[in-house]
Each structure stands twice: as C-alpha cells, then as structure tokens.
C-alpha cells in the first residue's frame, strides 16, 4: 500500500507542476527546477505529511494533490511575475533576483536618489511605474520596501535616511495606484550590507533600496 501511495503522490506532483519542470538559469546557463514545480513539490509534501500524521493513507494522497495544487499555483504566479518584471525592467539598472518564494528588486542609489538625499531621482520613475504595472496584474502580491546605507556616518543619520528613502518609494508607489495595505516600508541603515564597506565600490553597493514581491499568504 505504501508504494501505491508513493506512486500516487509522484504522479500527482508531475501533473500539478505541468510539463515544464525545469528552466535555464539566466546567469549560469544550467537547468534548474522552476518555481511552479518547487511549489507543487513542497505543497504536496506538506499535504501528504498532514495525512500521514493522522495515519490516513488516503488522506495523504489527497493532501498531496490539494497541497500540490496550491503550491504549484503560487510557483506559477511567481514565475509569471518574474518574467514580466525582467521584461519591463530590461536596461533599467534594476537588479531582478529570484529567491524561492519571493522576487527581489535591487535599486542602487545612483539610479534612485541623489547622494545623501531622500527625494527620488527622475531616473527611477519608469522602473517604479513598471513594478506598479506588474503588481496591478497580480492581486495576491504584497510589496516590502527596505532602505539601506553604507557605514559612513552615524547610526542615527543612516537609520533616518534609509527609512525616509523607503518611505519615499512607498509614497510614489501609492501615487501610481498600488494599494497602501499591500505595502510595508522599513529603513535598516547600515545593518544589512551586501558588500564590504571597506572600499568605495562596496559602499556604493550597499547604498540601495530593495523591493520584495511576496505572495500575500507568505507575508
């Protein structure tokens, strides 16, 4: 009976995740499991585990199908959002990174803000408009905006500047139609560096605003 349940789970996952189970990594060229498949696998595992916990083999198989459908749907939506964002933001200077169940957009201060200021640079308007456009096409997505600085200056100055920059992005996004309840903004000052603050290039790398698109159920 265990082998029958296992086979049912595997067949269900493959059916839920569709024919396209892999994609080519844009950076390395290597094949990787796409997010639709990952979501289906994780959802199936969660549903099957619940069935196993109540010692019901039939429930485990049903749980796999139900959980896989949910996970696969979330993964598919993220795949679609990522593709749309990469198309909209090509040559914008905005980095698009996929990290499991979230999409991370990195906007360096040279395209987003003037040095030491929190007012938006006109160069960032079009990229933010593009993000708002994609958000408008996917209802079940929330936006987390975070501001970051390098290590130059006091904690008080950096915390204030990073928070003001994050809020400036939030206010702009609200002005172009993104619902306030779907957004959250926070400044982190110098506490979350991406690069070393020991070099000029490293400090420039750390001065940034990040936007994370997250499925509403994950926020």
CATH class group of the largest domain: Alpha Beta
List unreliable stretches of 5+ residues. 24-30, 67-71
Total strand count, please? Answer: 7
> Architecture of the largest domain, CATH level 2?
2-Layer Sandwich
Beta-strand content: 15-25%
* Morphology call: globular
* The CATH topology of the largest domain: 60s Ribosomal Protein L30, Chain: A
H and E order:
HEEHHEEHHEHEHE
Main location: membrane
Protein name: OmpA family protein
Keywords: Cell outer membrane, Membrane
Pfam family, one: Gly-zipper_Omp
Summarize the structure.
This is OmpA family protein. This protein is of the alpha+beta class.
Overview of this protein structure:
This protein has a 5-stranded mixed beta sheet with strand order 3-4-7-5-6. Helix 1 (2-17) runs antiparallel to helix 2 (35-53) and helix 1 packs parallel to helix 3. The chain has 7 helices and 7 strands; from the N terminus they run H-E-E-H-H-E-E-H-H-E-H-E-H-E. The two termini are 38 Å apart. It folds into 2 domains: 2-86, no CATH class; 92-218, 60s Ribosomal Protein L30, Chain: A (2-Layer Sandwich), CATH 3.30.1330.60. It is α+β, with helices and mostly antiparallel strands. This is OmpA family protein.
């Amino acid at each position: 009976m265990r082998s029958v349940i296992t086979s049912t789970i595997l067949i269900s996952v493959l059916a839920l995740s569709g024919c396209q189970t892999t994609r080519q990594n844009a950076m390395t060229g290597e094949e990787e499991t796409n997010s639709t498949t990952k979501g289906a696998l994780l959802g199936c595992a969660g549903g099957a585990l619940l069935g196993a916990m109540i010692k019901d083999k039939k429930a485990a198989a049903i749980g796999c199908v139900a959980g896989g459908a949910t996970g696969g749907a979330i993964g598919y939506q993220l795949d679609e959002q990522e593709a749309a964002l990469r198309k909209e933001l090509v040559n914008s200077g905005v980095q698009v990174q996929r990290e499991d169940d979230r999409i991370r957009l990195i906007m360096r201060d040279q395209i987003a803000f003037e040095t030491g200021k929190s007012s938006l640079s006109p160069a960032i308007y079009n990229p933010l408009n593009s993000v708002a456009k994609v958000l408008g096409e996917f209802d079940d997505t929330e936006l987390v905006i975070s501001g970051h600085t390098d290590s130059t200056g006091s904690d008080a100055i950096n915390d204030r500047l990073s928070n003001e920059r994050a809020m400036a992005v939030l206010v702009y996004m609200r002005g172009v139609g993104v619902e306030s309840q779907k957004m959250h903004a926070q400044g982190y000052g110098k506490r979350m560096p991406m690069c070393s603050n020991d070099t000029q290039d490293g400090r420039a790398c750390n001065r940034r605003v990040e936007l994370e698109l997250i499925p509403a159920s994950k926020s």
